[in-house]
Specification:
rod-shaped, about 140 residues, alpha+beta
Length: about 140
Amino acid sequence: MIPRARTISRSRRGIESIEVMVALPLVLLVLYGGFEYGWMVMKSVQLDHAARVGAREASLDSSSASTVDSIVQSVLANAGISNAVVGISPAEPADALMGDVVTVSIDVDYGDVQLLGLSNFMPLPDSLHGEASMIKEPGVSP
């Protein structure tokens, strides 16, 4: 005669493995989803930072569009972001008058910066946007 406790533990092992097969993919999806959303927020903050650095440069009296663009691209490269589109308003910061607002905006496709590629399973944005504005500073007199 087989003890009853032994029979129950053998059948329980099969049920536990089925529970793991059902629950593990869901747990991993939630875990990886948290990583992906955290990555998205980090990249968004990096875009805002690069735009802020560019707007700071554009607000200076001696700035040019090419200088602003190269500084923004340098900050983006340090953050591991490429293929970003940088917009500067006004198009040539040197043309802005003292007190005018200069704006730097950055757009990048999220597919270029995504971490795990979970866009088929999760609602993720198509692109990320960063923007910063500052007031044009007066020139320095010698």
